[in-house]
Design brief:
Shape: globular
Largest sheet: 9 strands, mixed
CATH superfamily: Dihydrofolate Reductase, subunit A
Number of strands: 9
Helix content: 10-25%
Distance between the termini: 59 Å
CATH architecture: 3-Layer(aba) Sandwich
Oligomer: single chain
Strand order of the largest sheet: 1-5-4-3-6-2-7-9-8
Number of helices: 5
Protein name: Deaminase
Order of helices and strands: EEHEHHEEHEHEEE
Strand content: 15-25%
Organism: Cryobacterium glucosi
Number of domains: 1
Pfam families: RibD_C
Amino acid sequence: MRRLSAATEGVLVTGRIHIDLFSTLDGVSQAPGGPEEDTDGGFRFGGWQAPLIDEADGAQIMAGIQTMDALLLGRRTYDIFAGYWPDQLDGSASEIAHKFDAIPKYVVSRGTPDLTWRDSHQLGRDLAAELAVLRGRHEEIHVIGSIDFARTLVADGLFDQLNLWVYPIVLGAGKRLFPPDGPPASLELLGAGTPSEKGTILLRYGWKGSTPETGDMT
């Protein structure tokens, strides 16, 4: 493991940062993948995505994975991925496992994580400068899950595209990308995928600003 330098002088910033999130209709993105993924707050519905995924959204997810050339993850998501994907290189999900294994993994953490997964690197404290380095180094950088980290990126406008898969289910309590206490943000719709047979739709958003416009309907 090595710490990525935050030096940005001479860096040509060209790459794009994508945030990939799975969300319920009421905005919950906590633990879509499995019961033990994230039980914070006594969350009871871990694995809620599994019964709703089908070929259409699976193909959309895979298309994004195929184009990425770097992963950017929060500490919790990195630990989950590092504990699972290296063991899937010969399994049914080997295409995803080989892709993740082959590309650099960048981890945002205030601590000193044990980054044993191949080609893993910890980012420093100056996030904006670090992301400028990554943009100069890669073309398609994807943040998968990592809800707390994704909140920071959205709050500061440090992303290019939010890929939000919205599933037809309501859970009530749970972690959300947009919590009730803000901060505010203004987004623009860049496009949408074809709804799946089970009712999931991919919405693609770009950043507009941190001050939403208001008006008077009268």
